[in-house]
Amino acid sequence: MSKAILHVLGALALELTPGSAAARDALPQREAGELGAAIARDLARFSPQAAALDLTTAGAHYDPVELLRPGWPVHRELDQLGARAPGGRGDGGGRIIAFGSHEGRLPGALSPAPDYAGGPLRLVPWSLAGDADVAREVGEACERDLMELGMAGADTALLAQEAFGLQVEHARYLTMHDLCALMAMQYEHAGLAPLWPVLETALLSPDREAWLDAPPEPLLRYVDNEARIALLTRHAWHARNGGAGGGSGVGDDADDADDERLQRGFAHYQARQRQFAAVLRAHGVPVMFAHCQGDPAGEL
After folding, report:
1. Are residues 138 and 264 in the same domain?
2. pLDDT at position 255, please?
3. Are 258 and 252 in contact (CB under 8 A)?
4. Fewer Cβ close by (within 10 Å): the C or N end of the chain?
5. Is the pLDDT of residue 160 over 60?
């Protein structure tokens, strides 16, 4: 009877200097193998038992939205390709499988999307896989300590910098849960904190349901693996937000000013809907807009 296999998922996070641009987003096979070997050495220094697990990685760097998608599709692709690939043995017995480009193309669906190039944080994904007991122990150590103690080796950081043509300020290892926590903080700083609990549900518990029902934010429901955003008329939007902004009672000029203010408020609300939809779609969450007439919450 074969042993159960467990996966530990993470990334080498490359924090770039402001204005830094990559010379290339994917490495040819030889350089991808060198980077994979360096990542394996770092992880084995952090947790010696990691050397007994298979390490699979891609010689490529991605934006966080490409890795933080329901079902972890980049990591899933790595694992599926790695299950069929030969690989050299590491010092501790685990295989090191690194996918590089051939004639400028990575295998499978591993090519980074050009739409998300140029961000300040780039991620090289990795997966450790092997005996469930060993992987569970390594995974627990990673979840407990990697965020605080998981700095990449200086040689690994320099290798990544030179190979990709990046200017790297910091290079550290993160689990996918660490990356979620990091993105939650970044979205809070960007004014997107109300959306994060919905996105987190889609990432970590995709079969559960989540609501964003906190006026003046858009009304949103995550259910059946998609986000449904309520499309409201201006009247319904005004009523949902408490009917604030009624006339001040000083003639036509006051009425015109109130109407203009309501127009601006409703336009801001619609822009906020589009912003939320764009963020969700970037993370691979399907979005549906629902025209709501009566009770919006009852129609989503």
Report:
1. no
2. 63
3. no
4. N
5. yes
